[in-house]
Amino acid sequence: MSISLGVHVGQQNMTMDDMRALWRKLDTNGVDWISTWDHFYEAPPKGGTEPHFEALATLGALAAETTNARIGCLVFYVGYRNPALLAKAAATLDHISGGRFELGIGAGWHIWEANAYGYAFPDIGTRLDMLEEAAQIIRRMLTEERTSFSGIHYQVDDASCLPHPVQERLPIWIGGVGEKRTLKIVADHADGWNAAYLSPEEFKRVNHVLNDWCEEEQRDPRSLKRAANVMFNLGFNKKDLERQREILQNDWGAMAERTANGALLCTPERAVERIMEYVEAGADEINIALRAPWNVEALDAYLTDVMPKVRDAVN
To answer: Which DSSP category does 140 fall into?
Structure first.
């Protein structure tokens, strides 16, 4: 059994120089995965009041700055970019990174930034239809010599995507926890499933629903990777943890309790046990989600103490 331990870095409230230094630090300290997210505004939403970098351009720098970790975005909202363009970008990033890029896509949620930037943000059913079409187009563009597709939302006509990725099959991740549509799309079209900020117990329950969809769609559930994103709120003592709870409350408001349930809101000693709860719930990959500013000493403890202990526990 193996486990991937990654870091999901929100590209906000940092200079690009600081973010590039962070990527290098993570890469040299043995993280297995480094990702961005796809927003124009900060997350959680604050009305576009905090500095924030665009995802695709950021990923180009991430690909060039690292040499070891797999990289990607969790996840691109398919309503912001034509899926054929996204496939072309994915292939390009795979070449920049030497075959380390993995593409995450989803149905989106940040209606405030979409409205501000003039993007249509239809109802969730329509967005899921868009996601399903996009997944098919992207997979075919990345693997076939020519792709034609005529959907309700997207069309391509005898399109090529050359050069193809370095990887023979560039992994496609789909993020989300909707049990009726999203998980069915995952079972039909994805190589991996990503769920953000669920408790271990809820992750386990939703993971079983995904297994049911795999069986219904006649897919081996073992062929699908499972990743849990968890908020990074480590503290060394009671005072630290109280401060982390305040940060969660201030950032997330009414969603703070749910987010805290999917967080490493604990000491480094407890973090190993907490991560193993996700492993036991079915997660192959656990990614801590960093939002600047964070406790530098706590991150160092995670990299140098928690990660090795988790790997020892898994092996």
So the answer is: H
What is the spatial distance between Cα 69 and Cα 277, in angstroms, rounded to a whole number? Answer: 24
CATH of the domain at 46: 3.20.20.30
Note down the domain range covering 45.
4-314
- State CA 137 to chain mean position distance: 20
Instruction: Give the total number of structural domains in the chain.
Output: 1
The SS3 assignment for 198 reads: coil
Confidence of residue 3 (pLDDT cuts 50, 70, 90): very high
Over 90: is that where the pLDDT of 2 sits?
A: no
Q: What is the DSSP letter of 73?
A: E
- Compute CA distances 165 → 85, 90, 95, 138, 277, whole Å: 14, 8, 6, 12, 35
Query: Which phi and psi (to 5°) does residue 226 adopt?
Result: -130, 125
Q: CA 291 → CA 29, 30, 133, 232, distances in Å?
A: 19, 20, 32, 8
Average pLDDT value over all residues in the chain: 97
pLDDT at 315 (0 to 100): 87
- Collapsing DSSP to helix, strand or coil, 310 comes out as helix
Q: What is the pTM of this model?
A: 0.96
Q: What is the pLDDT of residues 11-28, one digit of tens each?
A: 999 999 999 999 999 999
Which parts of 253-306 fold into alpha helices (H)?
256-261, 268-280, 296-301
Radius of gyration (C-alpha) of the chain in whole angstroms: 19
- C-alpha to C-alpha distance for 274 and 263, rounded to whole angstroms: 9
Angle at 174 between CA 272 and CA 167, to 5 degrees: 90
Q: Over the stretch 51-110, which tens digit does the pLDDT of each residue have? A: 999 999 999 999 999 999 999 999 999 999 999 999 999 999 999 999 999 999 999 999
Reduced to 3 states (helix: H, G, I; strand: E, B; else coil), residue 298 is helix
Alpha-carbon gap, residue 237 to 254, rounded angstroms: 26
Q: Where are the alpha helices (DSSP H) in 121-216?
A: 124-143, 182-189, 200-216
DSSP state of 30: T
